[in-house]
């Protein structure tokens, strides 16, 4: 018999070691206690059974919504009375079409859809930046630019057609009861500005959404909008103040036991608070962003914890996001206030070096001795100076493939793989397009 999801979580946390992935995409349902179930997907669905029907948290993504519903129906056939969105990322709301289709086919009314007021603004922003979001989400996972294959995918909208819109919004907190079960919703900033975490006192349970993801907090994604580390930490401390015995994130394993839960939340909150303090101390001392990135770090032992490993986002990106939040977009280097174009600078450096080929050769040599950061600067200059060179693009593909292999976080791996693919394509090599992935955003 496979290990129960709560036993697995307990073992990982108590031992300080995860010997398997905490976020499992099985679409299997586990009953966490009477009338509470979790369906594990890329983004999970948490369900509470009440006397008036089911209350569901999130719908998973568009690729898994139907499978989530199928697993749910093997456990309970009650109608979904209320759907609570923890936030508006597509991997949390995109599966709601399957919920709507099931309701309509069975002659039931659609569920009430509840979320923070900022969620509707997020959806409007996604529609306004439709093309940009397709580009960055493919690049984040190592794919080619959307323009190279979007026409063959039917130009699907970024927000899937049929995604359920909010029918009920709130601003700070909201309480309501369904079938005798009370739900207490709280707004929190963190990964997003539209986040909801929910306290369910009858079950002594918290639905945390993405405020805890069994990875280093996703608070620095280099391609996405502002994140809020101190507000994130504050939300975790508010959760700790509840008599919580069951803690259910939308990614990763549920956690049981008050002491275990609060210990995990405190560690994450302290890590974010310390990182902000260290960056602000350096900013207040007059350091530039470059100096801060080179000097501020998270305790390596913390990054070994099974719920804080930097496998998706990473501290360096969070540092840059803290700078953006408190210091703006300029990094403090005068030449980068109004810089020359990348191409103009690349041509000048290539001329000084004796040609773009020499830059590319030096970049390859640096890669071979592990100096990946320098190598990537030089190879980008070489390709900017001579963009039609097949030889340079072959070298660039090699360098970025090596850079990708040296990285830990999925974000770094994806962006560097995308760069390698870009040069493989420029060199005339065939590159298979990847399916647009769901994203932790």
Describe this protein's structure.
This protein is an alpha/beta fold and 441 residues long. It has two domains: 5-268, Metallo-beta-lactamase domain (Metallo-beta-lactamase, Chain A, 4-Layer Sandwich), CATH 3.60.15; 340-426, Serine Threonine Protein Phosphatase 5, Tetratricopeptide repeat, CATH 1.25.40. Helices cover 43% and strands 15% of the residues. Strands 1-2-3-4-5-6-7 form a seven-stranded mixed sheet. Strands 8-9-10-11-12-13 form a six-stranded mixed sheet. A hairpin with a 2-residue loop joins β1 (29-33) and β2. The chain starts with a helix and ends in a 15-residue tail after the last helix.
Characteristic key phrases:
single chain; 441 residues; alpha/beta; Metallo-beta-lactamase, Chain A; Serine Threonine Protein Phosphatase 5, Tetratricopeptide repeat; 2 domains; seven-stranded mixed sheet
């Amino acid at each position: 018999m496979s290990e129960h999801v709560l036993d697995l979580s307990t073992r990982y946390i108590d031992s300080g070691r995860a010997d398997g992935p905490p976020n499992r995409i099985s679409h299997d349902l586990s009953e966490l206690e009477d009338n509470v179930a979790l369906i594990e997907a890329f983004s999970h669905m948490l369900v509470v059974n009440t006397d008036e029907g089911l209350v569901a948290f999130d719908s998973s993504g568009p690729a898994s919504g139907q499978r989530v519903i199928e697993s749910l129906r093997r456990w309970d056939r009650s109608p979904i009375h209320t759907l609570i969105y923890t936030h508006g990322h597509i991997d949390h709301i995109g599966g709601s079409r399957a919920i709507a289709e099931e309701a309509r086919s069975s002659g039931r009314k659609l569920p009430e859809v509840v979320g923070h007021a900022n969620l509707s603004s997020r959806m409007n922003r996604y529609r306004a930046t439709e093309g940009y979001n397709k580009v960055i989400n493919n690049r984040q996972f190592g794919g080619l630019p959307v323009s190279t294959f979007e026409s063959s995918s039917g130009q699907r909208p970024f927000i899937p057609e049929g995604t359920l819109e909010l029918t009920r919004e709130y601003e700070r907190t909201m309480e309501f009861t369904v079938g005798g079960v009370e739900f207490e919703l709280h707004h929190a900033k963190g990964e997003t500005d539209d986040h909801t975490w929910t306290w369910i006192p009858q079950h002594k349970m918290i639905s945390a959404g993405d405020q805890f993801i069994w990875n280093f907090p996703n608070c620095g994604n280099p391609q996405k909008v502002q994140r809020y580390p101190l507000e994130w930490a504050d939300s975790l401390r508010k959760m700790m103040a509840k008599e919580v015995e069951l803690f259910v994130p939308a990614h990763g394993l549920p956690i049981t036991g008050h002491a275990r839960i609060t210990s995990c939340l405190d560690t994450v909150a302290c890590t974010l608070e310390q990182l902000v303090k260290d960056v602000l101390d350096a900013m207040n001392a007059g350091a530039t962003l470059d100096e801060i990135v080179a000097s501020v770090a998270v305790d390596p032992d913390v990054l070994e914890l099974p719920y804080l490993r930097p496998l998706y986002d990473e501290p360096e990106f969070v540092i840059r996001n803290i700078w953006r939040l408190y210091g703006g977009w300029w990094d403090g280097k005068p030449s980068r206030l109004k810089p020359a174009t990348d191409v103009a600078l690349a041509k000048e450096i290539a001329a000084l070096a004796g040609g773009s080929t020499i830059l590319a050769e030096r970049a390859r040599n640096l890669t071979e001795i592990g100096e990946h950061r320098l190598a990537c600067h030089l190879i980008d200059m070489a390709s900017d100076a001579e963009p039609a060179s097949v030889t340079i693009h072959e070298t660039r593909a090699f360098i970025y493939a090596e850079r990708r292999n040296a990285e830990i976080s999925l974000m770094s791996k994806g962006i560097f793989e995308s760069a390698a693919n870009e040069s493989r394509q420029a060199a005339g090599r065939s590159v298979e397009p990847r399916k647009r992935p769901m994203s932790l955003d």
